[in-house]
Task: inverse folding
């Protein structure tokens, strides 16, 4: 008795389609990153939602920024840099991608984001950022999860 055709020849087209579908479904969905920030001076924030979620990643890329009026970390949309940050009333929040706030020597990359059709590519390093409270380059970020 000959074995069924399925086990003899190359993968039948229907199986190949199923395999491709499974691989596509298995790739991670585009999700933003939650990060914690901490400085030895005691300043800290928890679970800041960075980048974009499934519904808004084409128009929104949230990134930590320093608010000079409230001396706090806030979020700004890198895809709409002129929009005022509601968390920074009376001031212009400066994103941590700015060379004056970014680390001289970045630690390991905590998380990164690309919006290819907008030419945007950003990375958040683990430490060396300017602290909004004490002003020293001792603010560090750590991964705290994903959101979508
Ligand atoms: Zn500090």
Result:
């Amino acid at each position: 008795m000959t074995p069924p055709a399925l086990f003899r020849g190359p993968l039948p087209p229907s199986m190949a389609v199923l395999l491709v579908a499974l691989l596509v479904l298995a790739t991670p969905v585009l999700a933003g990153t939650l990060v914690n920030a901490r400085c030895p001076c005691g300043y800290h924030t928890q679970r800041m939602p960075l980048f974009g979620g499934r519904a808004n990643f084409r128009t929104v890329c949230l990134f930590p920024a320093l608010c000079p009026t409230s001396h706090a970390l806030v979020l700004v949309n890198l895809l709409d840099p002129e929009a005022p940050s509601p968390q920074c009333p009376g001031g212009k929040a400066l994103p941590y991608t700015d060379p004056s706030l970014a680390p001289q020597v970045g630690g390991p990359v905590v998380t990164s984001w690309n919006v290819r059709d907008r030419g945007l590519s950003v990375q958040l390093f683990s430490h060396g950022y300017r602290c909004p409270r004490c002003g020293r380059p001792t603010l560090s970020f750590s991964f705290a999860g994903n959101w979508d």
